[in-house]
Write a structure and sequence with these properties.
The chain is elongated, with a radius of gyration of 18 Å. α2 packs across α8 and α2 packs antiparallel against α9. The protein has two domains: 173 residues, Periplasmic binding protein-like II (D-Maltodextrin-Binding Protein, domain 2), CATH 3.40.190.10; 92 residues, D-Maltodextrin-Binding Protein, domain 2, CATH 3.40.190. It is built from nine helices and ten strands. The longest helix has 14 residues. β1, α2 and β2 form a beta-alpha-beta unit.
Length: 285
Protein backbone atom coordinates (compact mmCIF):
# COMPACT_ATOMS: atom_id res chain seq x y z
CA UNK A 1 0.00 0.00 0.00
CA UNK A 2 -0.48 2.61 0.01
CA UNK A 3 -0.74 5.88 0.56
CA UNK A 4 -2.71 8.97 -0.02
CA UNK A 5 -5.81 7.08 -0.82
CA UNK A 6 -8.15 8.11 -3.11
CA UNK A 7 -10.80 2.14 -10.04
CA UNK A 8 -12.41 -0.81 -15.33
CA UNK A 9 -14.74 -0.06 -17.83
CA UNK A 10 -15.40 -3.79 -17.81
CA UNK A 11 -14.68 -6.34 -15.15
CA UNK A 12 -12.46 -8.22 -17.57
CA UNK A 13 -10.48 -5.07 -18.24
CA UNK A 14 -9.98 -4.57 -14.54
CA UNK A 15 -8.66 -8.10 -14.19
CA UNK A 16 -6.22 -7.68 -17.07
CA UNK A 17 -4.99 -4.29 -15.94
CA UNK A 18 -4.77 -4.82 -12.23
CA UNK A 19 -4.05 -8.47 -11.66
CA UNK A 20 -0.77 -7.89 -13.48
CA UNK A 21 0.08 -6.04 -10.27
CA UNK A 22 3.32 -4.59 -9.00
CA UNK A 23 5.55 -4.52 -5.97
CA UNK A 24 7.32 -7.18 -3.98
CA UNK A 25 6.79 -10.91 -4.36
CA UNK A 26 3.70 -11.78 -2.42
CA UNK A 27 3.16 -14.25 0.35
CA UNK A 28 -0.01 -14.91 2.25
CA UNK A 29 -0.27 -16.74 5.53
CA UNK A 30 -3.14 -19.02 6.44
CA UNK A 31 -3.81 -21.46 9.24
CA UNK A 32 -4.72 -24.41 7.06
CA UNK A 33 -7.98 -25.72 5.69
CA UNK A 34 -11.14 -24.59 7.44
CA UNK A 35 -14.83 -25.15 6.87
CA UNK A 36 -17.75 -22.78 7.19
CA UNK A 37 -18.79 -24.56 10.38
CA UNK A 38 -15.46 -23.59 11.96
CA UNK A 39 -16.01 -19.92 11.15
CA UNK A 40 -18.92 -18.74 13.26
CA UNK A 41 -19.01 -16.02 15.93
CA UNK A 42 -19.43 -18.60 18.70
CA UNK A 43 -16.27 -20.46 17.62
CA UNK A 44 -14.03 -17.57 16.56
CA UNK A 45 -11.55 -16.27 19.13
CA UNK A 46 -12.07 -12.55 18.58
CA UNK A 47 -10.84 -9.67 20.72
CA UNK A 48 -14.34 -9.18 22.07
CA UNK A 49 -16.80 -12.06 22.26
CA UNK A 50 -19.46 -11.78 19.56
CA UNK A 51 -17.70 -8.80 17.96
CA UNK A 52 -15.23 -8.39 15.08
CA UNK A 53 -12.72 -5.57 15.58
CA UNK A 54 -11.47 -4.13 12.28
CA UNK A 55 -8.68 -1.56 12.00
CA UNK A 56 -7.68 1.02 9.43
CA UNK A 57 -5.73 4.28 9.37
CA UNK A 58 -7.08 7.76 10.00
CA UNK A 59 -7.90 9.72 7.96
CA UNK A 60 -9.51 7.07 5.76
CA UNK A 61 -9.61 8.18 2.12
CA UNK A 62 -11.76 7.41 -0.94
CA UNK A 63 -12.20 5.19 -2.82
CA UNK A 64 -11.39 2.85 0.07
CA UNK A 65 -13.56 4.71 2.59
CA UNK A 66 -16.06 7.48 2.00
CA UNK A 67 -16.52 10.58 4.20
CA UNK A 68 -13.62 9.46 6.43
CA UNK A 69 -16.08 7.07 8.10
CA UNK A 70 -15.26 3.34 7.89
CA UNK A 71 -18.48 2.47 9.73
CA UNK A 72 -20.81 3.57 6.91
CA UNK A 73 -20.01 0.61 4.63
CA UNK A 74 -19.24 2.94 1.72
CA UNK A 75 -15.92 2.67 -0.11
CA UNK A 76 -14.06 -0.40 -1.34
CA UNK A 77 -12.35 -1.56 1.85
CA UNK A 78 -15.25 -0.66 4.12
CA UNK A 79 -17.53 -2.76 1.89
CA UNK A 80 -15.00 -5.63 1.81
CA UNK A 81 -14.68 -5.61 5.59
CA UNK A 82 -18.44 -5.78 6.11
CA UNK A 83 -18.76 -8.50 3.45
CA UNK A 84 -16.11 -10.59 5.22
CA UNK A 85 -17.83 -10.00 8.55
CA UNK A 86 -21.17 -11.08 7.08
CA UNK A 87 -19.62 -14.30 5.69
CA UNK A 88 -18.33 -15.01 9.19
CA UNK A 89 -21.77 -14.49 10.68
CA UNK A 90 -21.32 -11.01 12.15
CA UNK A 91 -23.96 -8.35 11.56
CA UNK A 92 -22.95 -4.78 10.75
CA UNK A 93 -23.64 -3.78 14.36
CA UNK A 94 -21.21 -6.50 15.51
CA UNK A 95 -18.28 -4.83 13.70
CA UNK A 96 -16.21 -2.44 15.79
CA UNK A 97 -13.70 -0.14 14.06
CA UNK A 98 -10.41 1.04 15.54
CA UNK A 99 -7.53 3.21 14.29
CA UNK A 100 -4.16 1.66 13.44
CA UNK A 101 -1.47 3.70 11.59
CA UNK A 102 -0.30 2.01 8.40
CA UNK A 103 3.38 1.81 9.31
CA UNK A 104 2.69 0.19 12.69
CA UNK A 105 0.17 -2.35 11.42
CA UNK A 106 2.78 -4.86 10.25
CA UNK A 107 5.21 -4.31 13.13
CA UNK A 108 5.93 -7.35 15.33
CA UNK A 109 3.90 -7.86 18.47
CA UNK A 110 0.33 -8.22 19.71
CA UNK A 111 -2.52 -6.40 17.95
CA UNK A 112 -5.48 -4.45 19.28
CA UNK A 113 -7.65 -5.63 16.36
CA UNK A 114 -8.84 -8.86 14.79
CA UNK A 115 -8.00 -7.76 11.24
CA UNK A 116 -6.74 -4.64 9.49
CA UNK A 117 -7.76 -3.45 6.01
CA UNK A 118 -5.61 -0.54 4.85
CA UNK A 119 -4.27 -1.20 1.34
CA UNK A 120 -1.56 -3.34 2.94
CA UNK A 121 0.56 -5.16 0.39
CA UNK A 122 1.40 -8.78 1.11
CA UNK A 123 5.20 -9.08 1.19
CA UNK A 124 7.53 -11.77 2.58
CA UNK A 125 9.26 -9.42 5.08
CA UNK A 126 5.91 -8.35 6.53
CA UNK A 127 4.65 -11.93 6.58
CA UNK A 128 7.50 -12.81 8.93
CA UNK A 129 5.79 -10.78 11.65
CA UNK A 130 2.08 -10.87 10.80
CA UNK A 131 -0.47 -13.06 9.03
CA UNK A 132 -2.16 -12.11 5.78
CA UNK A 133 -5.45 -13.40 4.47
CA UNK A 134 -6.01 -14.48 0.91
CA UNK A 135 -5.69 -11.33 -1.23
CA UNK A 136 -8.81 -9.28 -1.87
CA UNK A 137 -7.30 -6.91 -4.47
CA UNK A 138 -4.32 -6.51 -6.77
CA UNK A 139 -3.20 -3.00 -7.74
CA UNK A 140 -0.85 -1.60 -10.34
CA UNK A 141 1.41 1.32 -9.54
CA UNK A 142 0.92 4.73 -11.15
CA UNK A 143 3.06 7.77 -11.92
CA UNK A 144 1.54 11.16 -11.11
CA UNK A 145 3.14 14.40 -12.37
CA UNK A 146 2.24 18.05 -12.71
CA UNK A 147 0.39 18.82 -15.93
CA UNK A 148 2.70 20.29 -18.57
CA UNK A 149 5.88 18.98 -16.93
CA UNK A 150 8.48 16.88 -18.73
CA UNK A 151 7.52 13.89 -16.61
CA UNK A 152 3.87 14.27 -17.63
CA UNK A 153 4.80 13.70 -21.27
CA UNK A 154 6.55 10.37 -20.62
CA UNK A 155 5.27 7.53 -22.77
CA UNK A 156 7.61 4.80 -21.49
CA UNK A 157 9.19 3.94 -18.14
CA UNK A 158 12.59 4.74 -19.65
CA UNK A 159 11.40 8.32 -20.16
CA UNK A 160 11.22 8.66 -16.37
CA UNK A 161 14.70 7.41 -15.53
CA UNK A 162 16.14 10.91 -15.24
CA UNK A 163 13.15 12.30 -13.32
CA UNK A 164 13.14 13.07 -9.61
CA UNK A 165 10.63 10.60 -8.17
CA UNK A 166 8.92 10.62 -4.78
CA UNK A 167 7.48 7.68 -2.81
CA UNK A 168 6.18 7.01 0.69
CA UNK A 169 8.37 5.04 3.06
CA UNK A 170 7.26 1.50 3.84
CA UNK A 171 5.26 1.04 0.63
CA UNK A 172 5.84 -1.30 -2.29
CA UNK A 173 6.07 1.74 -4.56
CA UNK A 174 9.76 2.11 -3.68
CA UNK A 175 10.51 -1.46 -4.75
CA UNK A 176 8.49 -0.94 -7.92
CA UNK A 177 10.39 2.23 -8.82
CA UNK A 178 13.77 0.63 -8.31
CA UNK A 179 12.96 -2.61 -10.13
CA UNK A 180 10.92 -1.29 -13.05
CA UNK A 181 11.88 2.35 -13.68
CA UNK A 182 15.47 2.07 -12.43
CA UNK A 183 15.95 5.85 -12.06
CA UNK A 184 19.39 7.39 -12.47
CA UNK A 185 19.14 8.93 -8.99
CA UNK A 186 17.60 7.47 -5.84
CA UNK A 187 13.92 8.29 -5.36
CA UNK A 188 13.06 10.72 -2.58
CA UNK A 189 11.38 8.90 0.28
CA UNK A 190 8.77 10.65 2.45
CA UNK A 191 7.39 9.71 5.85
CA UNK A 192 3.69 9.71 5.01
CA UNK A 193 1.14 10.32 2.29
CA UNK A 194 0.65 13.97 3.18
CA UNK A 195 4.37 14.61 2.66
CA UNK A 196 4.17 12.93 -0.75
CA UNK A 197 1.31 15.22 -1.77
CA UNK A 198 3.14 18.29 -0.49
CA UNK A 199 6.30 17.33 -2.39
CA UNK A 200 4.33 17.09 -5.64
CA UNK A 201 2.46 20.35 -5.01
CA UNK A 202 5.62 22.27 -4.19
CA UNK A 203 7.73 20.85 -7.01
CA UNK A 204 10.15 19.04 -4.70
CA UNK A 205 9.90 16.10 -7.13
CA UNK A 206 9.03 15.75 -10.80
CA UNK A 207 6.55 12.95 -10.14
CA UNK A 208 5.34 10.59 -7.42
CA UNK A 209 4.62 6.88 -7.58
CA UNK A 210 1.57 5.53 -5.73
CA UNK A 211 -0.91 2.71 -6.19
CA UNK A 212 -3.32 3.31 -9.05
CA UNK A 213 -6.55 3.91 -7.09
CA UNK A 214 -4.67 6.40 -4.89
CA UNK A 215 -3.49 8.20 -8.01
CA UNK A 216 -7.12 8.68 -9.06
CA UNK A 217 -7.98 10.29 -5.74
CA UNK A 218 -4.80 12.38 -5.71
CA UNK A 219 -5.48 13.91 -9.12
CA UNK A 220 -9.20 14.44 -8.55
CA UNK A 221 -9.16 15.86 -5.05
CA UNK A 222 -5.71 16.61 -3.68
CA UNK A 223 -3.65 17.95 -6.59
CA UNK A 224 -6.12 18.69 -9.41
CA UNK A 225 -3.41 20.28 -11.56
CA UNK A 226 -1.59 16.93 -11.64
CA UNK A 227 -2.17 14.10 -14.09
CA UNK A 228 -1.75 10.33 -14.14
CA UNK A 229 1.12 9.72 -16.57
CA UNK A 230 0.36 6.00 -16.66
CA UNK A 231 0.32 2.74 -14.76
CA UNK A 232 2.83 -0.10 -14.68
CA UNK A 233 3.22 -3.53 -13.18
CA UNK A 234 6.12 -5.16 -11.38
CA UNK A 235 6.98 -8.83 -10.86
CA UNK A 236 4.79 -10.59 -8.34
CA UNK A 237 1.90 -8.17 -8.30
CA UNK A 238 0.94 -5.80 -5.50
CA UNK A 239 -1.64 -7.90 -3.71
CA UNK A 240 -3.51 -6.52 -0.71
CA UNK A 241 -4.69 -8.75 2.11
CA UNK A 242 -6.33 -8.38 5.48
CA UNK A 243 -3.60 -8.24 8.11
CA UNK A 244 -3.88 -10.25 11.33
CA UNK A 245 -1.60 -10.97 14.26
CA UNK A 246 1.03 -13.63 13.61
CA UNK A 247 -0.52 -17.02 14.21
CA UNK A 248 -4.01 -15.59 14.58
CA UNK A 249 -6.69 -18.29 14.91
CA UNK A 250 -8.86 -16.16 12.60
CA UNK A 251 -6.58 -16.13 9.55
CA UNK A 252 -7.91 -19.28 7.93
CA UNK A 253 -11.52 -18.19 8.40
CA UNK A 254 -10.90 -14.70 7.01
CA UNK A 255 -9.17 -16.24 3.97
CA UNK A 256 -12.06 -18.68 3.57
CA UNK A 257 -14.54 -15.79 3.65
CA UNK A 258 -12.58 -13.85 1.00
CA UNK A 259 -12.31 -16.93 -1.22
CA UNK A 260 -16.09 -17.39 -0.95
CA UNK A 261 -16.69 -13.73 -1.78
CA UNK A 262 -14.52 -14.10 -4.86
CA UNK A 263 -16.10 -17.34 -6.08
CA UNK A 264 -19.63 -16.01 -5.58
CA UNK A 265 -18.85 -12.87 -7.60
CA UNK A 266 -19.59 -10.55 -4.68
CA UNK A 267 -15.99 -9.38 -4.38
CA UNK A 268 -15.93 -8.56 -8.09
CA UNK A 269 -19.13 -6.53 -7.75
CA UNK A 270 -17.69 -4.57 -4.82
CA UNK A 271 -14.51 -3.93 -6.80
CA UNK A 272 -16.42 -2.83 -9.89
CA UNK A 273 -18.54 -0.38 -7.91
CA UNK A 274 -15.77 1.34 -6.00
CA UNK A 275 -12.66 0.87 -8.17
CA UNK A 276 -14.10 1.01 -11.68
CA UNK A 277 -11.96 3.86 -13.07
CA UNK A 278 -8.47 2.42 -12.57
CA UNK A 279 -7.95 0.65 -15.89
CA UNK A 280 -8.42 3.86 -17.88
CA UNK A 281 -4.84 4.97 -17.15
CA UNK A 282 -2.41 4.09 -19.99
CA UNK A 283 -0.02 1.20 -19.35
CA UNK A 284 3.68 2.11 -19.57
CA UNK A 285 6.43 -0.36 -20.46
Amino acid sequence: MPLLRPATLLVSALVLALLAGCGSKSSSTTTGAVSASDCTPSKLQTKSAGKLTVATDKPAYPPYFEDNDPTNGRGFESAVAYAVANRLGFSKSDVDWTVEPFNSSYAPGPKSFDLDVNEISITPPRAEHVDFSAPYYTANQAIVAAKGSDAASASTLADLQSASLGVQIGTTSLDAVNSEIQPSSDPKVFNDSNDVVTALKEGQVDAVVVDLPTALYLTSAQVPDATIVGQFSAPGGDRWGALLAKGSPLTGCVSHAIDELRSSGELGRIEQRWMSQAAQAPVLH
